[in-house]
Each structure stands twice: as structure tokens, then as C-alpha cells.
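Record Zinc metalloprotease, 428 aa.
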Amino acid sequence: MSYLITILAFIIVFGVLVTVHEYGHMFFAKRAGIMCPEFAIGMGPKLLSFRKGETLYTIRLLPVGGYVRMAGDGLEEPPVQPGMHVKIKLNDDGEITHIILDDHHKFQKIEAIEVKNCDFKEGLFVEGVTAYDQERHHFNIAKKAYFVENGSLVQIAPKHRQFTYKKPYQKFLALIAGPLFNFLLTLILFIGLAYYQGTPTNGVAGIEKGSPAAKAGLQSGDKVVKLGDYKVSDQKDLRAATTKVKDHSTTIEVKRDGKLKSFHITPKKKVYKQSKFNKETLYQLGIEAQTEHTLFKPLLSGVEKTLIAGKFIFTAIVGMIASIFTGQFSFDMLNGPVGIYHHVDSVVKTGIFNVINMTAMLSINLGLMNLLPVPALDGGRILFVIYEAIFRKPINKKAETTMIAIGAVFVLIVMICVTWNDIQRYFL
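=>
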């Protein structure tokens, strides 16, 4: 039963993270007028699909990401290539309105053609030898034209609906929106947790057994007003004061039953391992803070936690990149789907709130990782757009396609290595 809960939690966490990321791309792409033929969760073979408007929504087998296909983004391959035999339907002006790729149709007055040359991005034409006269003809594609496959109509994007022909700021927004929506998800989850659980105050709800606070004589119901030379009005002040005091002996002043009392206390030093090469040192008192439910404090708490999480993840990513040049890099520093599943399995046992907190952290991690300047990722493609904005012309299309392909192969190899490393680490 626990395995089923873990699998369900993994599917929900993965689905939410990828859906939010890809929806961000599609949201801004469609507002820029870019046609989005497919919105996919997962990779590989198609499991489920449905069409809404001009977009096919799919769920695919492999939980290793997702994508939004944007017309003319250089990543899509048209279903018609030279050498194929297809059927076409023409309008009164001799323009192609339908390219028919199967026999599941009821069109009449159609032409069979062997495709010799075609362009579905810039020239928007098909050249080929027609069956009725065995002559080569050139056909322009109509402003509103479709591929007909598996009984469905897939519109052929005209130039003004393609990513390539949009302004740099529109491309930039469509690309950065994925990571941006991940950051927003983190913010929303942290704010939601703060509203539900309340925000911590300077009141003491409980004392950890054997902790510095217990040894000092603090009790539940106390309110911390001062630590050393630092005044305390909330939990944030107390954390900041503890960090400054470190593990040195000092005094802590509390209000108990309306009276001020002073105790001697020495914060406990604790080192947390963030990664194989990075550690974080914290100083703890062992106080469980009281919480309060207010209207505005959860908003501030959510923003603060998002910034702290962003800084934490960003520092870890920078450390990982630096380790490549120092020779200290290890695949243990990365987690693929298998590693995330193992992490979910551990966290789900501790309760729903920790799962939500983990989802928030994974979301901001996904956003930042996608901003890395690797051509196949959002960050790399954003660099191409910045180049276009600066030099007033897009980067050479062949060079861009080649770099994206190399980047995609690199990402795939890294994903395979990380997944195999996770399997060895957790299951072998």
C-alpha cells in the first residue's frame, strides 16, 4: 500500500511541476499568437491524448520532462518529407488546403502526388509529381491549410503564427515563462503553507528534549524578547540573533507570566550536508515556535521562503558547475526521476505538508536548472534571442539547429548517466 501511495505522490508531484512549467511556455506563446500544435507531459510513446482547439494534449510514457511544440521553433519536424506519396486537396486558386496522410477521410476531388520538395516554414509550398499527368508542379499552401492524419486536422502554421517570425521580446517571454511559472508555483505553495500552518512568532510552543533551551530552563508559553544583545520580536529575529551569537554562551531574556526572566544559553552547532562537497552550518536553540494566523504575514513569509530557497538552489548549482572545473564533480550531486522517486518515498512518510514543501523546492530547482545556458534548455535558447535583439538579426538557422541538437544529446546523455547512477545508489 505504501508503494502505491509513493507512486501516486510521485505522479502528482512530477505532473504538477512539468504541467506548470510547460503551461507557462504555452500561456505566453499563445498570447504572442504562436501556434502550439502539442502540449506533452512526459516523453516517448503516447499513452493518452485529446485535442482542444489547435493543440493536442498528450501524456507520454517516460517521466523525464515534457514539452510544448511551438510552430517554427526549429525543433519540430513536419510529417511530410520529400519522397513521400500523399494526397492533396486544392482550392479554386490552386492552393493546397489539405495534405492527406491517411485513408480515414471523406474528401473528394483530391490529387495524388509524390513529394519532391517542400517547405512548411518559410516558402510554404509543396512541389511534386502528380499522378494524373506525371508532371512536376509547384503548389503554394493556403493561408488556412491542414495536415489530415488519423482522422484529425492539424493546421499548418502560416508565417505570422510561427515562433521564428515573432519579435525578440515575444520569444523571450515565451521561453522564460516556463521557469517563471515554476518560481510562481514555489511562491504559491509556500504562501499556502503559511496561511494553513500559521507564521512563527517569538512565543515558545515546545522545547526539544536535551536541547540548549531545555538545559537553560525555558518553558512552553515563554516569549523570547532578547538573545544576547539582539532584540527579538519574531522567529526571524530569533534565527538572525542565533546566527550572530553562534555557539558562544550568552543570555536569553523571556517574558513569563508578565515578568521578564533571564537565562544563560549556548546555541548548539549543527552541520548539514547539502551535497557531496557543500555543507551548511546552523546554530540551534531547540525551541518550537508558536504560530499565529494573520492576513499579511503569510504573504511576506512566502516571499522570504521563496528567496531563501532560490538562493540555496542557486548556490548548489553554482557549486556543482564549479566542481566540474575542480575535478570534484560527481553524479551523486544530481537527481533524475529515480532519485526524485526515492526522495518522494522518504518524504511522503513524514506527511503531506513536507511533500508540499518538497514540491516547492523541486519547482524552483526545475526553474533554475532550465535557465542554464545549454542550447537545448530554455536558458540556451534565451541566449539566441538576446543575440537577435542585440544584433538585430537571428543567429544562423543551421548553427542554431546544430547547437540545439548537440545540447539535446548532451542533456540526454546526462539524464541516462544520472538515472543509472540513481538506480545503483538506491536499488543495487
